[in-house]
């Protein structure tokens, strides 16, 4: 299984329009602080699946040489996680999309001119895709309705993507995602910045410790972190284009 972090930014991305903070300046100069919006590519020998389709999807697919996908999984209904699906218009028809009922209904009504093949999935019910086992689990990201994280298994290997979430994930979900080989965690800000809908970096590290993650990588990162080359010396920050073999 191969994981590629196509986009590791939060909703505004980095650089933020009009911002001249050191991180945004570094991003404008081409450093790894430059972050497009959230999307993750999951690959097996049998195909490619996207977890979320952020607004920058077109450039992400072009940069990473992705010509076709075998499925899309949506975690929730916020635009920075689905709006890029429109880039498949007149490019790839009848894309297979997966998610819980409420999420599919909202997104497909918004993208009413698209005609994907939609597959309703229930939380905690595993399903197979590209030879991998996927399970959606409940997380907490108000005011989104029933947001989910994604667990992926191949043999004895386990990857967990938290999606957007607060730290107070339910016991049922925590039990499911124990002992992952890789945890890709929402960590939108350092602990010095107040946040209500996401985890900060300290909370993400606490989650990783509590579930026994062998490795953790942060994503959904804002410009409130120091420039990447500085912040990554102390924190496991992901970056756009980062590839991880599991």
From TrEMBL:
SMART domains: Lactamase_B. It holds the Pfam family Lactamase_B_2. Residues 36-220 form the Metallo-beta-lactamase domain. CDD domains: metallo-hydrolase-like_MBL-fold. It comes from the Archaea. SUPFAM superfamilies: Metallo-hydrolase/oxidoreductase. The keyword Hydrolase applies. Keywords: Hydrolase. Gene3D superfamilies: Ribonuclease Z/Hydroxyacylglutathione hydrolase-like (3.60.15.10). One of its GO terms (molecular function) is hydrolase activity. InterPro entries: Metallo-B-lactamas, RibonucZ/Hydroxyglut_hydro. This is Metal-dependent hydrolase, beta-lactamase superfamily I. It comes from Methanomethylovorans hollandica (strain DSM 15978 / NBRC 107637 / DMS1). The lineage of its organism: Archaea, Methanobacteriati, Methanobacteriota, Stenosarchaea group, Methanomicrobia.
